[in-house]
Amino acid sequence: MKNFKNLLLTISVLLLGATASFAQDNIVGITYSMAVPTTGVNNYINEASFSGVNVEYRKFLNDNLSVGANIGWNYFQQSNGTQTYYGDNGAITGEEFRDSDILQTMVTSHYYFGEEGGIRPYIGVGVGAAGNYFDNQVGGIAVVDHYWSFAVTPEVGVLAPLGGSGTYLLTNVKYNYMTEAKGYGDYGFWSFNIGLAFDF
To answer: pTM, whole model, 2 decimals?
Structure first.
C-alpha cells in the first residue's frame, strides 16, 4: 500500500510538472450577448434579446487547449398587446407581458487553431446547469415560475490579440441547449457574443 501511495504521488508530481511546463496564460473575458430564441423559448417569446452578458475564465493547459468556467445571462421579453383569456370561472383581459431570465453556469473547454500571439479561431463546449426564471402577466394577474435544467453549449469563436498589451478581442457564436425539466420541454437559443479578454 505504501509503494502504491508513493507511485500515485510520483505520477501526480510528474503530471503537475508537465502541465506547468506547457501552461500558457490565464485569461478572463467579458462579452455582450445578443440572442435569438429557438426550440421551446420561441413558443413563449419569439423576439430577439439584446440584454445579455457572459463572464468567463480560461486556463491554458498547453498552446491549443484551455479549460475554464462561464457564467452567462440572457433576458427575453415581449409585449403582446391587449389579450383576453378564458377559464372555467370567467375571463381576464389586459396588456400581456412575457419575460424570461436565463442564467447559465458552465464548465468549459476550448481548442484553438493557429499560433500563440496571432489570431486564433477556436471551437469549444460548455456543460453545466441553466436556470429559467419567467413570468406571464395579463393586467394585474401574473404567473411566475422557475426551474433548473442540464445545459450544453457548443460554440465557435475567435480570440485575437489587440497589440501587445495582453488584451484580446473575444467573439463567438453559441447554441445554448437546455433539457426538459419540471414538466417543461427542452429549449434553446442562439447567442452572438462580442467583448474583451485579458491576461492575468
So the answer is: 0.80
